[in-house]
Design a protein that fits this description.
elongated, transmembrane, membrane, mainly alpha, 4 helices, 126 residues
């Protein structure tokens, strides 16, 4: 029997959830990065002369891809740290809310930017 198996497997499930979140973030970043292609296709090329800021979607998408990669690194570090703490006999205080708070703030800022950006792009098309 593996000591602390339920805690170790819960740690692994949490790690895999963070990895799924990071991969989703990276995929959504790729989709945002290609948003200009969607705009050009749906407007049959007339978007090129409308003065839209298509570069913003490229930078935003790249930023989301980089954020997803950073999230994978942070999740991996947290997974190994928590594994060591679970297997240690000494009691330790739980730490780890700062990363979640920073990521939450970044994702809220990203969502607000997307709402403003897409809203601006849609109003510029009419």
């Amino acid at each position: 029997m593996i000591p602390h198996f339920s805690d170790l497997s819960a740690n692994e499930r949490t790690y895999l959830a963070w990895i799924r979140t990071a991969v989703s973030l990276m995929g959504f970043g790729f989709l945002i990065e290609r948003f200009d292609v969607f705009l050009i296709y749906t407007t049959r090329g007339s978007v090129l002369n409308s003065g839209l800021h298509l570069r913003a979607s490229e930078w935003l998408g790249l930023g989301m891809i980089l954020l997803g990669a950073a999230l994978i690194l942070l999740a991996t570090r947290s997974f190994y740290r928590n594994s060591r703490l679970i297997q240690a006999e000494a009691a330790a205080a739980y730490r780890g809310t700062m990363v979640e708070r920073v990521l939450t703030a970044l994702l809220v800022a990203l969502a607000l930017f997307l709402v403003l950006y897409v809203g601006y792009q849609l109003t510029s098309l009419h």
